[in-house]
Design a protein that fits this description.
Number of helices: 17
CATH class of the domain at 4-75 and 97-218 and 461-475: Mainly Alpha
Radius of gyration: 21 Å
Helix content: 40-55%
Structural class: mainly alpha
Largest sheet: 3 strands, mixed
Strand content: under 5%
Order of helices and strands: HHHEHHHHHHHEHEHEEEEHHHHH
Strand order of the largest sheet: 4-5-6
Amino acid sequence: MKKYNKYIALLFVISAFFSCDSKLDIEPRQTLSTDVVLTNEENLEAVLFGAYAGLKGTFGTNEGGELFGGDFNLMSEMLAATDNVRWGGSFDTYREMANKDLTTTNLVVRDNWIRGYDVINSANNVLANLDLANTDAKRNLIEGQARAIRAMVYFDLVRIWSRPWGSGSESTDPGVPLVLQPTLTAVDADALKTLGRSTVSAVYSQILDDLTQAKSLISADLGANGTNISTYTVSAILSRVYLQQGNFALAAQEADRVISSEEYALAATPIGAFNNAANIGEDVFAIQQTSLSNAGTNNAGLTTFYARLFGNGRGDVQVQQAHLDEYEAGDLRGGLQNDLSGTATIGGVSSMFYLGVGGQNSGQIQCAKFGDPNLNIPVVRLAEMYLTRAEANFEEGTSVGDTPLNDINVIRERAGLAPLAGPITMDDIRKERRLELAFEGFRLHDFKRWQDPVGTLNYDAPELVMPIPEREIEVYDIPQNAGY
């Protein structure tokens, strides 16, 4: 990330080289040999930077597919929307998600599938050319980051496009195609036409293999590692994967590794964890908006849909009073600001929720976590690690690092609430998780692993799984999800 200016010209060459109309499709004009651009360590790091940029989503284009910069969040929050939030915008693509009535030609579904495999292909190209690294230490660092990026994308792809882990049929349920080698030529792409979908279990196995290798490849001596993925970022993602699988012992262990590293610290207030121009102590990993060309200024990204402020946002994601009613009196995470002027920007917002101003959808309740397209988007926060450790320890009956009660009280006290006296319950833990991580893209995945219904739908209902894009079904031998 820090070498952005050095790499930007080369990145545009690489971006054109790797971009494609279909996730698994390379057109003849793009069938260049890797030795055109991948000739030295600097080139290799530039391709890795391209993968980082891809995690955010659109890079200086209007192609769509926002991944961690937007749509992975919105897919989870809209599919799991009940009385807590409504879609108030004009885009049918997201309304289909909120209504649980998706079509196989939904452009957001298509673009994120495509973007996800673009990032995977970039990571695969890095992993296939590690011999270009000048030293073993640099090779390990590059490999670890590339494996972590690939695993992060596959984890969200399999959670969004497949039946959930915990159904009991993971070994037979179709997951997503596992592409582990670079797709460079039309011949490579043609070979993928019969690849099919690996099982959910196989995809999770690959994710865990990549992450466990990445954890050891990235040296702990690098600490938090600035804006890049660190070994502690990898542990944080591992804790997510283990929690999703119900492997509570390992989830607690990995979350505790992040907390006990003492590389991170909670922001002074809940809202202070958001809308920052640079990483803060709470950020285990964040999307670096300010280092990306035209960050968020095109019609995409979380600010576009969550914010309704002067010059920023459409106010499409409208929080409902039922959600605010869940917060205790005095909870800093549930405050509603209703006195903003018509020219207010995020700098004037001091509560987690506010009444939108300055244009369409003004007067609706908006979440203040995403208020400026040029400010960073937290992907992993330290607060999540406390909540994960608390839940995993409670489920396992252990106290790795600390007790569930103490971990929950760390989060409550930061929110301005009195600590719980105990004994703590699973309902207490789940409530704190829902409120602390509200509108950060966790809702659908938490409901599925808790096996809680979403409205009138069972946790494993076909309506809560994205369809495989129609264009992929037409070209490749990929079975469609049930219900489509």
